Protein 1
Amino acid sequence: MSTEPAAPTAETPEAAAPDPVQADQAEPTAAVDAAEAAGNERERKERVLHTRVPAVLEAELKRFADNLRIPVSNLVRTILEDAVMVADRAGQGIERELRTVANRVGDERAKLRSAVAKFASLDDVYGFQPLVLNLPANCARCGVQLVPGTAAHVALSETPGPRRFVCDTCLPGRTPSQAD
């Protein structure tokens, strides 16, 4: 007498309602196995994709397919292909827009750098006013940090823009020995 379970038959409940968990974990069908065993001589262009959908969605898909007089599988395939195509186009559009914005930002950055270089050159400055800093700043020439209480000079100019300060060492017309 064998202790192995009997194979499901039409009378057993296993044959009447297959377990959905086992069905999801089942091996590929024999047709797919046969195609792969043939040495992949020809690549299969279409695959079967199983998915679970809510009953309401299933009813809507069937109703829509009936109205169009096409099989539900063709309708679902067309919807998926269209959705992927739209997503690809949207992604390409977003990528194109990001590149445009990045180029614009790069152009604006170059304009700002040239404006900053113009101010750093101090070519438009007609004079300097000595002062003692109350707030931290950086020297427009050498970039050294000027802390509050430091003697510095504010650049005077007719050109609008941020205030520029220079340290004693960078004051034009002065030598380092005169700064002390």
Protein 2
Amino acid sequence: MPSLLGMSLLLERLICTLSNALQMVNIRLFKTSDTDDVIRVARKAWFHTYKDIFSKEKIEELLSIFYDPIHLVEGNTLKHSFWVAETDGKIIGYVTIGLENGEMKLFRIYLDPDYIGMGIGSKLLQTAETFMRQHGITKYYLEVHPKNTLGLSFYKRKGFVQSSRQPTDCSSECELVLEKTLD
């Protein structure tokens, strides 16, 4: 068993590595040329997130609907604000926000599962929230599957609170609606 000093040094190295990884991540606006990379991240993230919630066939069906290249480019660049996270020229995550029925909504935030726990999701969310604050938005919401424990724990740590439940076409279960008020 490692000594307390050994554990302390190991933890210090891990924190340094995570800090360096986060500093090497660039958040920038989505470009049409990012489409294939975003779809790659989406596939990896969806199978990681939803493997115990939906069948493989259902995940494939939903991916084909939500990540059709034409829909992805037209819908996100014309109607939403869309940022990607990249490191060493590789896209590893993304976030999209936009208005729906007159309210600001976080539509998607996903990370390549290999990069979870490094603060990159927080950096993506912070970018979207900064944009919202700059545009006078003080409150926004998102919808999340009740069995998406990875997403739910992230959102709760970031200050979201459940406001309601609503039916969805994706599942027989109602999605949770979470809200956050910006400072």
